[in-house]
UniProtKB/TrEMBL annotation:
<dbReference type="Pfam" id="PF23085">
    <property type="entry name" value="RRM_PARP14_3"/>
</dbReference>
<feature type="region of interest" description="Disordered">
    <location>
        <begin position="643"/>
        <end position="672"/>
    </location>
</feature>
<protein>
    <recommendedName>
        <fullName>Poly [ADP-ribose] polymerase</fullName>
        <ecNumber>2.4.2.-</ecNumber>
    </recommendedName>
</protein>
<feature type="compositionally biased region" description="Polar residues">
    <location>
        <begin position="266"/>
        <end position="276"/>
    </location>
</feature>
<dbReference type="Pfam" id="PF23222">
    <property type="entry name" value="RRM_PARP14_1"/>
</dbReference>
<dbReference type="GO" id="GO:0005634">
    <property type="term" value="C:nucleus"/>
</dbReference>
<dbReference type="InterPro" id="IPR037197">
    <property type="entry name" value="WWE_dom_sf"/>
</dbReference>
<dbReference type="InterPro" id="IPR004170">
    <property type="entry name" value="WWE_dom"/>
</dbReference>
<keyword id="KW-0539">Nucleus</keyword>
<dbReference type="GO" id="GO:0003950">
    <property type="term" value="F:NAD+ poly-ADP-ribosyltransferase activity"/>
</dbReference>
<dbReference type="GO" id="GO:1990404">
    <property type="term" value="F:NAD+-protein mono-ADP-ribosyltransferase activity"/>
</dbReference>
<dbReference type="InterPro" id="IPR057051">
    <property type="entry name" value="PARP14_RPM_1"/>
</dbReference>
<dbReference type="GO" id="GO:0005737">
    <property type="term" value="C:cytoplasm"/>
</dbReference>
<dbReference type="Pfam" id="PF02825">
    <property type="entry name" value="WWE"/>
</dbReference>
<feature type="region of interest" description="Disordered">
    <location>
        <begin position="244"/>
        <end position="311"/>
    </location>
</feature>
<dbReference type="InterPro" id="IPR052056">
    <property type="entry name" value="Mono-ARTD/PARP"/>
</dbReference>
<dbReference type="GO" id="GO:0070212">
    <property type="term" value="P:protein poly-ADP-ribosylation"/>
</dbReference>
Length: 1073
């Protein structure tokens, strides 16, 4: 049995996942090659998984080895908690016992005074935590025996020594406090600077904080804590002190698992102690699972097992060596080679943590096995104590390899292991072990070098660590007495090591380092920490704002540089940052104004912050004329050249032309001419299913060639990727041609026709999808960039960041205004006028929203004034312009393609664009038709395609304005006819409201003096037809927009009838006609 304590041999596995099986966990940590461990026993203690190894060295190897991964699950290991000398647990109390009686009992039994302890009863008052101000002075076993003999209020109580906890209970939290805030606080220097493992919120004002190290609990409890201007209450956390409802589901689950584990262990122990009857009559105890795993604890002689191969007569004996030290000595010795040389017919190998002996002679193998067992049993272990510094020196990898190599070179195979402040030497015999101990003691030399305060500071430099790495087999540490450096090295290297260290301590070391940081942090230091930088006069500090490196360059003596770097690093780490996004119309333009710069400078000085704006710089339009710029943008927009119907007609004509050109040399007469009577009515481009409705089989009279066309091995070899509709439609056309034709030419013609037919079908299907939504053009991106800005703020406190956020947004909102412009023509704006509105947004940096007949302009006051001016100018032009609808009613632009006998009309979008360009008296205009560049020459009335180089004649066609040739009753044509019938318009109709509104708009100053009683509509058809003829004549001759206005004529009631019958007579001008 090992003499080490259980604490030294134990390792705790943290947060063990349910995916890791207990058996798999044991096998992994028993494997020395993978985990560094060895034979162990697994225990469950208070929800913790503890591995108890046979040797403390195995536990040390597990803790020092890298990350442990089992079944793709990363495991964390640490030392299990030690016993807490200041916290005791009293169990078995009577819940009705008063606290005064308990205090007297504790003071008498433990010999305490008032104020030397604190009691924490559990919610059930049957368990009590005793927190001592000083560690217990009595021997615990004697105290436990004494308390178990003395009852308290008739109840038998017992005392336990608690293990150290890694958690604290935090109370008095402010509402809204979360896990992240608590983690940041306790890991900061204000909270103790301890690493936090987990945070659980037990309630809105209570939380459980767990740390990585057990020592962190006392360090945190010894401090005063204040968070968000509130004093926090902290105490050690134990589950038994918490009410059941405060336990998290995870805690409850852990307690249930602990109970289940305890019951299972008790059940296994009962089974292991029960005798089982064997067939031979012997009685043997059934080993438990843990016992089965630890059969390797037996001696080497008990671990031998015989294995006989079934394939040959070769026998094998395996001698297990459970002790890694003995196994290492065996490998280093010459015993294996000597044994192999003396017995050529025997194979000796080191395998499976032991020695495998194979041969044909059983007697010989038995003798060799016994010889090997005697050799292993003759090995001896010797222990000698050393100073802690020397133990750490011996445990270094390079030192161990050097010393063991020297031992092997001297013919003394041995190994040593470091266990605490002692070395355990394993050798072939006791004398050899003593010799090795003497050799190891003689190899370590200590050199003491006096150092002053300045030189002691040099020992904290990274240059010192680099020197120690270059000095092999050397470790150094300041003496506890101070003023002296103790250096450990190997024999023969003392002078060389001492010379190098003295030279380092007496040399002047210069250092140049760069502290990298964000540009905003650098500006913050320069602005608000300039005095701190100026006080560091022992070093030179130069700011660097290069693109590759941004920070502070520190140059000077190494000690001063390191101190300055540590101080500045602490300042930089305390700087708080926040990105503030401000969304407001024209905010980027405002940011470049002198007023805004003044606001930012004021906030930087007031709140001790640095503000770094990030935005797309504002730039004015290259051309301030919004109408010209909008027209340029319209010309860069792709327009459909022809309408969908025109495209389909053109493609259909080309398809028919190509199909009809096939097989013109020889045609076979149609046998059933009467079946073709309805051929012209067949829709060749519709759904193929409609052909069945028209009895296509009997109509065509050629089902076999038609079937071959769709087959993969048809004569025509139709492409499978063509649409089924296009193939079927062309097959109908083709089946009506002659059967005798040239196959090579016809296939090419038919393939081309099929592709055209498919293109026609696809275009017809996608005609509705051609009206795509507008993509984000550069002008729209510029508008969006002008309305958003990001401010990166750097400050010493988070509260200052919040203040800057509120203050700046308030300043921006106070300068925002809104103006509304109303006009009845707003609802009829064309794409060109909408583009003009976008240009106004871009020009002035404002937001414009169209609401019915109103335009709302919002943004900064100075910018809104200019935007409203341009908006009114736009509305003035809009009121004098012709709408797109009127243009399409009056004018049509067509092109005369040589391949088409009829003029091909342009699309509505193209017609509107060309008409506006023509009315602007432009000689040439560049435009995109179907994403292809074109140029239109109005002097030559010609369209030129820059892609193909082709030119096409175009013309402008005036459409008729209504039907002027319809029959008019003779009585209506008579100038002497009576007054046309008047139709009264109801007051609730939209027409009535529009007439009244427009009339009042012309007499605004007399609005309150006039009341409209009635509105009537009259129609004189003869005069109306004359008006339409005149309007057509004006449109044909004019190149400017036709200005039509609604005028109001005041006259007497007698003249009203004459005007309605005969119209206005200019000869009565001035006579109130």
């Amino acid at each position: 049995m090992s003499t080490e304590s259980e604490e030294e041999r134990s390792v705790e596995v943290l947060a063990l996942s349910e995916e890791v099986d207990e058996e798999l966990l044991c096998l992994y940590f028993e494997n020395k090659r993978r985990s560094g461990g060895g034979p162990l026993e697994l225990q469950r203690k208070d929800g913790r998984t503890v591995l108890v190894f046979e040797e403390a060295q195995a536990a040390d190897r597990v803790l020092s080895k890298g990350p442990h991964v089992v079944h793709n699950v990363k495991l964390q290991v640490r030392r299990p908690p030690a016993k807490d000398p200041c916290r005791l647990l009293l169990r078995g109390l009577n819940p009705n016992t008063s606290i005064e009686m308990v205090e007297l009992y504790v003071e008498n039994m433990i010999d305490l005074n008032v104020g030397e302890y604190t009691l924490f009863p559990s919610p059930g008052r049957d368990v009590l935590l005793i927190h001592l101000s000083q560690p217990i002075s009595k021997e615990f076993q004697a105290l436990s025996s004494q308390i178990s003999k003395r009852k308290l209020d008739g109840a038998v109580v017992c005392i336990e020594q608690l293990s150290r906890t890694d958690s604290v209970l935090v109370e008095n939290l402010q509402p809204g406090t979360n896990q992240d805030l608590l983690t940041l606080y306790f890991e900061s220097e204000r909270g103790g600077g301890q690493r936090v493992k987990d945070v659980r919120m037990l309630s809105a004002a209570t939380a459980k904080v767990s740390f990585v190290n057990f020592e962190s609990v006392d360090l945190v409890l010894d401090r005063q804590h204040k968070l968000e201007n509130t004093e926090l209450a902290l105490r050690a956390y134990f589950d038994f002190l918490q009410p059941p409802e405060s336990l998290t589901p995870r805690d409850s689950e852990t307690e249930q698992q602990d109970d289940t584990t305890r019951r299972s262990q008790n059940h296994i122990q009962m089974q292991a102690s029960s005798p089982l009857a064997n067939g031979d009559g012997s009685s043997r105890a059934k080993p438990s699972a843990a016992g089965a795993r630890h059969t390797s604890k037996a001696g080497a002689s008990e671990e031998s097992m015989d294995v006989q191969s079934e394939e040959a007569e070769t026998l094998q004996f395996h001698v297990a060596i459970p002790d890694p030290a003995k196994q290492a000595v065996f490998v280093c010795s010459t015993f294996q080679k000597d044994l192999q040389k003396a017995n050529p017919g025997v194979d000796v190998q080191v395998k499976d943590d032991g020695v495998l002996i194979a041969g044909a002679d059983r007697l010989q193998l038995e003798q060799l096995r016994q010889t090997l067992l005697d050799f292993l049993n003759a090995m001896q272990e010797t222990r000698f104590s050393v100073a802690p510094e020397e133990a750490e020196f011996f445990s270094r990898k390079d030192v161990e390899e050097y010393l063991l190599t020297a031992l092997r070179g001297s013919g003394t195979p041995a190994v040593y292991t470091v266990l605490g402040p002692a070395l355990i030497v394993t050798a072939l015999s006791a004398d050899a072990a003593a010799t090795v101990c003497s050799f190891l003691k003689s190899q370590v030399k200590c050199v003491s070098i006096p150092v002053n305060a300045e030189q002691e500071c040099m020992l904290h430099l990274r240059e010192w660590l680099e020197l120690l790495q270059t000095l092999s087999f050397t470790s150094a540490k300041m003496s506890d007495r101070g003023g002296q450096l103790d250096v450990l090295t190997l024999k023969g290297k003392e002078k060389q090591t001492e010379r190098a260290i003295r030279q380092f301590l007496t040399s002047s070391i210069e250092r140049e380092t760069v502290m990298a940081m964000k540009p905003g942090m650098l500006k913050y230091l320069q602005t608000h920490c300039h005095q701190l930088l100026a006080d560091m006069n022992q070093v030179s500090i130069i700011p660097s704002e290069a693109e590759d490196v941004c920070g502070l360059k520190i140059h000077g003596p190494a000690v001063a540089c390191q101190m300055a770097e540590e101080v500045l690093q602490g300042v930089v780490s305390s700087i708080c940052t926040r990105s503030i996004t401000v969304n407001a119309p024209g905010v980027t333009r405002f940011l470049e104004e002198k007023e805004c710069r003044s606001i930012l400078n004021e906030m930087e000085s007031k709140f001790v912050v640095y503000i770094c704006p990030k935005y797309v710089p504002w730039s004015h339009l290259p051309h301030q004329d919004i109408f010209e710029t909008a027209w340029t943008m319209m010309s860069q927009k792709s327009l459909p050249k022809m309408s969908v119907d025109a495209k389909q007609t053109g493609l259909r004509d080309e398809v028919k032309e190509r199909v009809s050109s096939m097989g013109t040399k020889r045609r076979k007469p149609v046998e059933h001419a009467d079946q073709l009577y309805d051929l012209e009515n067949v829709d060749l481009y519709s759904d193929p299913t409609s052909l069945s409705d028209q009895n296509s089989a009997s109509l065509l009279g050629a089902p076999k060639p038609f079937a071959d066309l769709n087959g993969a091995g048809g004569v025509l070899g139709l492409s499978k990727n063509l649409g089924e509709e296009a193939q079927l439609s062309l097959a109908i056309q083709y089946s009506m041609e002659a059967e005798q034709r040239s196959t090579k030419d016809d296939e090419a013609q038919l393939q081309k026709a099929l592709e055209l037919s498919k293109t026609m079908t696809e275009r017809g299907d996608s005609s509705g999808s051609n009206k795509q939504t507008k993509a984000n053009t550069p002008i729209q991106e510029a508008i969006q960039a002008a309305n958003s800005v990001q401010l990166d703020v750097f400050a010493g406190y988070n509260c200052d960041l919040i203040r800057v956020d509120i203050a700046f947004k308030k300043k921006v909102s106070q300068r925002q205004v809104e103006e509304k412009v109303e006009h009845r023509a707003v609802a009829n704006m064309s794409d060109y006028h909408k583009t003009c509105l976008e240009m106004i947004k871009r020009k002035h940096g404002v937001a414009i929203d169209v609401q019915g007949t109103s335009i709302v302009v919002s943004g900064f006051k100075d910018y809104v004034v200019g935007a409203v001016w341009d908006t009114k100018l736009l509305l003035e032009k809009l009121s004098n312009s012709v709408s797109d609808r009127e243009i399409l009613k009056a004018v049509q632009w067509v092109q005369h393609h040589p391949a088409s006998p009829d003029p091909i009309p342009y699309s509505d979008e193209a017609t509107v664009f060309l008409e506006k360009a023509w009315r602007m008296k432009l000689k040439t205009v560049d435009v995109l038709f179907d994403h292809q560049p074109h140029s239109v020459n109005f002097d030559k009335m010609q369209e030129y395609s820059r892609a193909s180089g082709e030119s096409v004649k175009i013309s402008r066609k005036l459409l008729e304005l209504g039907d002027l040739t319809q029959d008019v009753p003779e009585e209506e044509l008579s100038l002497l006819s009576n007054l046309p019938d008047a139709t009264k318009i109801t007051e609730d109709s939209e027409e009535f409201q529009n007439v009244v509104k427009n009339f009042y708009a012309t007499i605004y100053e007399h609005h309150s003096k006039i009341r409209i009683i009635q509105v009537e509509r009259l129609m004189n058809r003869l005069l109306y037809n004359q008006y339409k003829l005149k309007k057509a004549s004006v449109l044909q001759l004019s190149t400017h927009p036709v200005v039509e206005r609604t005028l109001y004529h005041g006259t007497s009631e007698t003249s009203v009838k004459e005007i309605c019958v005969h119209g206005f007579n200019r000869s009565f001008c001035g006579k109130n006609a």
